Amino acid sequence: MIPQYLVDFDLRELPVVRTDCIIIGSGIAGLFTAIRAAEDRKVVMLTKKSLMESNTRYAQGGIAAVIAEDDSPEFHLQDTLMAGAGLCSREAVEVLVNEGPEGVQELIRLGTKFDKEDGVLALTQEGAHSHRRILHANGDATGYEIVRALSEQIANHDRIEVWDDHYVIDLITEDGECRGALVQRPNGSRLFLQGDATILCSGGAGQLYRYTTNPEVATGDGVAIAYRAGAHIRDMEFIQFHPTALSYPGAPRFLISEAVRGEGAVLRNIHGERFMERYHELLELAPRDIVARAIIDEMEATKSTFVYLDITHESAEKVKHRFPTIYGTCIGYGLDITTDWIPVAPAAHYMMGGIKTDLNGESSIPRLFACGEVSSTGVHGANRLASNSLSEAIVYGRRIVDRIRSLPGLGEVLPSAGCDEGRSEHPSQAVVERRLKLQKVMVRQVGLRRSEETLTKGLEELKRQLPIFASRLTTPEDLEFANMLTCSLLITESALARQESRGAHYREDFAQRDDVCWRKHLLQIRELGIVEENEA
Questions:
Q1: For residue 25, what are the CA distances in angstroms to 172, 190, 196, 277, 317?
Q2: Distance (Å, whole) CA 300 – CA 187
Q3: Which residues are the active-site ones (predicted)?
Q4: Where are the domains of the chain?
Q5: What is the DSSP letter of 66?
Q6: Contact between 21 and 199 (Cβ < 8 Å)
Q7: Domain range 243-349, CATH architecture
């Protein structure tokens, strides 16, 4: 069993720092929530790298919100429910689609400069959306622009203290409530950061896979930390693989935004044949899981490691204007997307599951909240609708702060929590080797297509790494690996338990969706294992 704490400690021997609100992570969820909370609270924001390093920074497509006159929250609701394959919480989605437009307006007030055409906000369309409702910035650099604007607000805020290069090891709970976090400083020393509310905004877990669009920091820390503290974790089997990541020698798995297909790009196999008509009526704009599996099928049929994305029929001026980041990145590797087909393949992209929260973003542990990709609000179901993630972070960030304002203060509290497992040995194998081995297991055994055989083999291989929890972990890299292993085990165990195919979870041995037996969630609770939860 995974222990409650990764390291031995005694809070009575550690320095204590007190604040009102602790925010862990610096993507759109952390930045926006910090700004809202700091209107009347002292905030400490912790990031294990730097303020600008997060998944949000690399988000290209945009943010989904009902802006156009011919659109409506009801249309957005139906699109989200369809993509979510029967596991969305209708109530959570209604919150998103109705409160999203005001959230966008708040981003604008905070300095985000979305693209405009003829003086009005420019909107594009992405897969499985019935209307043009995706706002974007600098063409295809939406995430970077949002992070830029919010970071500038935080840099000038006297109630927000940013701790770069600080690693949150574990959460401290007492009497069933979250009281703060055990934190490791850059110099290796530790402290107890105490707060009235703790908000996990630590992002996703793409780095569990060898091929991912996510940055190095996306290692599933928040889910693992919350799981060890006893929070309910939900829907971890649903990992979204983006269909189109650059697959080119010497280049990273750079995201080729779904908006490229939204603007008319088509998929071709290595023989130049357009193939999506054989898989879905929506062609290239089918839900991501369908497009991703179609690409894998074509790669296997043609014995290739990629397919092509072709937007060469559009004018060079339009492509360069609409996708300057993608154009500039590809040209740096000798690919001119205005004249060349882009080699692409699926890569791990987004984690639909996470820490189960209510409609106010609060977890099963009082005073512990989760916002953004680390959370499971019920919005995304089994398959996230494109560009709903940034909207979700804004909408639920606002709700979290409203809830925090109703909490009574904890005052000065010195919990007696401590841990002495007698750990003495350092890990025997270099962490870089362990990490690579884990990533290979996840790609091969727990990837886009799964079966009892592959999942069982993957689980056995992952469990061989369990002795790490009995080792003395001191470096951020060691602690990070322990979190990666925790998340990998959660994903594999829930994927093995769900004996059907739904959304982003595809079982070759249970290829059909089964609403009679499986229209329900799987909760994972550290002391109970897997618990089934029916979808209302």
A1: 17, 18, 17, 41, 38
A2: 49
A3: 288
A4: 15-238+352-404, 243-349
A5: -
A6: yes
A7: Alpha-Beta Complex (3.90)
Q: Give the span between the Cα atoms of 227 and 230, in whole angstroms.
A: 5
C-alpha–C-alpha distance, residues 259 and 323, integer Å: 9
Calpha distance 443→348 (Å, rounded): 9
pLDDT at 56 over 70: no
Q: At what angle do helices 221-229 and 476-497 cross, to 10 degrees?
A: 80
Would you call 288 a catalytic residue per the annotation?
yes
DSSP 502: B
Query: What are 69-102's pLDDT values in tens digits?
Result: 999 999 999 999 999 999 999 999 999 999 999 9
The radius of gyration of the chain from alpha carbons, rounded to an integer in Å, stands at 22
Integer Cα distance of 3 and 94 in angstroms: 38
Mean pLDDT on 8-15: 94
DSSP 451-475: -HHHHHHHHHHHHTTGGGGGS---S
As assigned by CATH, the class of the 15-238+352-404 domain is alpha beta
Which one is catalytic: 234, 253, 288, 399? Answer: 288
